[in-house]
Design goal:
- The protein has a domain of about 80 residues.
- Helix content is about 10%, strand content about 35%.
- The chain is built from one helix and seven strands; from the N terminus they run αβββββββ.
- The strands form two sheets. Strands 1-2-3-4 form a four-stranded antiparallel beta sheet, with no helix packed on it. It has a three-stranded antiparallel beta sheet with strand order 5-6-7, with no helix packed on it.
- The relative contact order is 0.12.
Amino acid sequence: MEDREEALAPSRERFPGAAFDESRIPKVKPLIERLVVDDRSRLWVKRTTRDGHTQFDVFGPDGRPVAVVDSPLRLDSWAPLRIEGDLVYGIVRNEDEVPFVVRLRITKAP
């Protein structure tokens, strides 16, 4: 419920007094936020963890699971996302909600 209120807050501020049909807003977040195919034809399934970080389930061209990739940052769900080799390019927002581009290098866990 907290996420729903957080999502509605900007609209409530922008349109004070407006009526919103909250029944059209799901009570549960979708598990999958985005699907991205990288330069090696792997499918990256993006989701957000409970602590707000981004996580990807990666599948090979044959559909078999390849890896789970964790990011310490929350990548913007609405901005473009590019994955090339061992690099992920995306958008994050700082504490003032200003978007900026990040380049993350994928490494194997120790």
